[in-house]
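cron nightly-structures :: item 1 of 1
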Amino acid sequence: MYDISTRKRALALVAQGRSLNSVSKETGISRSAIRSWQTRISPLPRMQLTPCSMCGPSAEPPADKASYSYLLGLYLGDGCISPAKAGYFLRIACADAWPGLIDACAAAIEAVNSGKKASRVQAVGYTSVVGYSRHWPCLFPQHGPGKKHTRNITLKPWQREIVDAHPWEFIRGLIHSDGCRITNWTTRIIGGERKRYEYPRYFFTNLSVDITGLFTSALDRVHVEWKHANRRNISVARKASVALMDAHVGPKY
């Protein structure tokens, strides 16, 4: 779809006496489109842009803030935004091993995207959950060229307010994308005999220092103790903290 200024520019070139073919080659607009604009320059009502909660002078965050906080975590972990002809596709890659995660991701996209249906595209070993909108960059201003770990990732003030209000949803989204719950083991001497001891632990892994920082800030907010297992891995292993994570996040399913 083309805006009014683009349409007027194409018609101005035609008014100079140029052929539809030459104007089409210069602008990349089809001749049939230019020909139709000669009788109607305004877009048909069904083609006009839908309003966006983040656009315009009275911008408001998404209505379903809990779903947005979860979807933001998924996006920062395994999401990307790519341009389409008249809008954008949001894609979240979800491993096929976790069908519950795929369902939760689709539900979050539909809740944030005004109930528009999310599609599922099968790939080798994973499913891309996809939503179409003209306004994904408005809702996820972290979108930009290159991989996330090669650029700065910071939250806008309105995003920070949502994450602060719904930290567990944000943590769950990050764990569901780039985290896991595993069972570690070690050995102890008990009564003179060496015995195996198992304990649960959560890990979060991401190459972006900014994204791991957002994760640990959210953990601090809900009083979960954590530590760096290495440069890119965050570990939660304290018994009380694991219990909190189990109550609010849990393993993937």
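cron nightly-structures :: done
The beta strands are 79-83, 88-95, 119-122, 126-133, 179-190, 193-205, 227-230, 233-236.
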